[in-house]
Amino acid sequence: MLDGLPSIHAVDVLDILLVAFIIYWVLLFIRGTRAVQMLFGLLFLMLMYVVSKRAGMVTFQWLVGNFLGNLLVVLVVVFQTEIRRGLARIGQLRLFWVKGSAPDPDVIAELSRSAFLLAEARIGAILLLEREMGLEEFVEHGKKLDALFSHELAASIFGTNSPVHDGAAVLRANRIAAAGVILPIPAESVETRGMGTRHRAAFGVASETDAVAVVVSEETGNVTVFSNRSANRAESAERLREMLELLFREKEAPPEPG
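and the corresponding structure tokens:
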């Protein structure tokens, strides 16, 4: 009775599971972003193409067909931000593991203390900590320093009289590589709704790279840590130190043996 059915091999099952995983991963990745609405728009056009073909709507079919004929180019243009972020995430897999330079514990402690001293003084700041992915594309647009991190230096950078206080400071290991770095501000999404400009900029960079962003709010005095599309508030300098040490410890851990 089942003679007419095609035989299924292990590679076929693996093929189906792989495609299902990729679709699930893509949907999970774009959740909460504008890409969801764009994807629904493309699916609607595909549906309209099928309907127009069955209904014999030649002109509409020709128009949509030509548009969908260049679908690969359309997808690259429309989803360029998501594609760039996705490729960056793939590069962070343990398969491509490369050890980055983490700040020394003393520097992390000093940074944590500095963040809360700035918060007490209601001085806004963005401290962008580089991990495995290089941040040279941001550094080259700021004022290069290459100076050992200290609270005094951070206070002079983010003080209201400083010409670079509106930008971010990029930390590479124990040193401030650049200050006054103007970060791109992503479009508002579900995840960034209600955030101010400084927090949205930090969220955007932490989403597209593996960097850790520490943001001090000049309005509320809150200190927030952004990493991998997540935002977590630190209640104290000690808690901030623990969070940063954990994030860098995760990146420094060698890949699990296969």
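(Above: one complete record from the training split.) The longest strand covers residues 175-181.
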